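Subgroup meeting minutes
Present: P.N., E.W., G.H.
Scribe: E.W.

1. P.N. recapped why we're keeping a running log of single-chain structure predictions: easier to compare across weeks, and new members can see raw inputs and outputs side by side.
2. G.H. added today's entry (270 aa).
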Amino acid sequence: MLTLSPSVRKSASLIYHFAERESKARYKRSLLGWFWSFMNPLTTVVVYSFVFGVVYGAKAPATENGNAENFGLYLFTGLIVWSLFTGVVNGSMGWLISISDLRKKIYFPTETALLGGAAANAVQTGLEALVLIAIMGVAVNLSWTLVFLPIVIAMSLFFALGLGFIAAIFNARYRDIQYLISILLNVSFFAVPIVYTPDLLHQEDVPDLVRVLVEWNPPALFVEIARDSMYFLETPDWTRFGAALAWTIGMFSIGWWYFRDQSMAISEEP
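Output recorded in log:
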């Protein structure tokens, strides 16, 4: 019979504790609590549908049956992945700082704080994904391809954690990093085809280098895989899927190694 070692059980317990703490802090003093986890994505769909579909008259790409051709849904499918990515990268820096006093008093695996915070964000994203699935179900725009949605959410999560591990270490030493990364994420939002369709990149006046950078950067790959599975009901392009997986494994491995290598030194700094 397989049993988990005490150290593994302790780490799992700490991750759960930090995830619970992050979740409770998110809706502290809120009467409706997790209800807002469903209301926020629903409101996003309604507002984006009105702004882009009615005010700007943006046309959503065609879907399999034509019932879900709504620019709000098109945006929301991409935003689910993007919001998880930015939430984990930004959050990682704050999660490490929040335990700065504790890690100087007792020893525990410091990465559990970041893993717990990421887990809380994953739960929030999971609830948003359920809202998307429910809406697509009403629109009869669902297929077996939805199995790729949790996979790409996981890839986005671990890629963001890899970046977050590195950003958290640098931010612990130089607090300017959190402001710099916030700016970089805001700018890079437009390097991901969320508020525009990828076909705009194939116009003649778009340089080849720009097209390649936008189409093959990791967040863009995650967004396109999510849309293929939930909006277009298509099997993701395997070349892109392989590239996204490679980015995920590579970044998480580097970030994990760097964090484990530097976290003890960070704990000893004043």
